[in-house]
Design a protein that fits this description.
This is Flp pilus assembly protein TadD, contains TPR repeats. The chain is built from 15 helices and no strands. The protein is an all-alpha fold.
Length: about 280
């Protein structure tokens, strides 16, 4: 696909030069080809940032950046690819250099803050977000603000930021799940349950939200599975979570029955549940 796109653009550039009359100079031809290459690279960069393998994307942006060291879009692409590859500390260095060069944007500073959070450098992340003007109201900015407020146990701020973030995206499941987990840690179990249900309404396949929902219900001694979409394997895993929650609450006999049901439900041998059940029976 990339070859066809490149060929089509080259033909268009050649036709454009031919249409100018009098024949094009070598310099004009080279400029046209360079422009086409930039367009082609932009398309490839977009592919690398979305569907490409993260490590392949890192290699691509590293290689291309060596040939074009002054291009901020390539630096940005490398930082994002490093994040996708699970290398936030390396991404933070790239974003730091990009911002220091004067080529960075507010979005880059927000990306830098996220890399710092993932590197467990919360104070530095907060310092970066403090430099982002309040007029820069984006989903990622408020999502990170909420996480930082959470880490400081500033619950009112966290709730406000989570609510704003959820309203700034068409796919709020992830931030709703994070908000619910925050409520779970505060032992506000009913509020947490509500947020996990809302997250699953937006993304019925999010297993993390399903498991968190079970934890919130188990903490309230609700030992029946809620009516949500789940596969047979997921059902077994949720029963296992619920069984452990029951044992933690001191409802050992209920927990034992749930663990047995988890073992019976799983389409394969469920080692973790079987081991927990054996420990209870022993």
């Amino acid at each position: 696909m990339r070859h066809h796109l490149f060929s089509g653009l080259c033909l268009a550039a050649t036709a454009l030069l031919a249409g100018c009359g009098g024949g094009a100079s070598d310099a004009e031809v080279q400029r046209a080809i360079k422009d086409v290459n930039v367009i082609d690279e932009s398309n490839l960069s977009e592919i690398m940032l979305t569907v490409g393998d993260p490590n392949e994307a890192v290699a691509y942006f590293t290689r291309t950046l060596q040939q074009n060291p002054d291009r901020p879009d390539l630096k940005r692409g490398l930082a994002k690819s490093l994040m996708r590859a699970g290398k936030p500390e390396e991404a933070a260095k790239v974003w730091s250099a990009l911002i220091a060069s004067g080529q960075g944007s507010n979005d880059d500073r927000v990306g830098y803050a996220e890399a710092l959070i993932r590197s467990n450098k919360w104070a530095e992340a907060a310092a970066q977000l403090n430099q982002v003007p309040p007029t820069h109201e984006t989903y990622d900015r408020y999502r990170l603000e909420a996480m930082i407020a959470d880490s400081r146990k500033e619950w009112k701020k966290a709730d406000s930021f989570y609510e704003i973030a959820a309203g700034l995206t068409t796919k709020p499941a992830s931030v709703l799940n994070n908000w619910g987990f925050s409520k779970l840690n505060r032992r506000e179990y009913a509020a947490a349950e509500k947020l996990f249900v809302e997250a699953l309404t937006n993304d019925p396949r999010m297993f993390t939200a399903k498991n968190n929902l079970i934890l919130a219900r188990g903490a309230q001694r609700k030992y029946d599975l809620p009516v949500i979409d789940m596969t047979q394997t997921e059902r077994a895993e949720l029963l296992y979570t619920l069984g452990l929650a029951a044992v933690k609450q001191g409802d050992v006999s209920v927990g034992r029955n749930l663990l047995q049901e988890a073992v019976d439900t799983h389409p394969q041998y469920f080692e973790a549940a079987a081991r927990s059940l054996a420990a209870l029976q022993g």
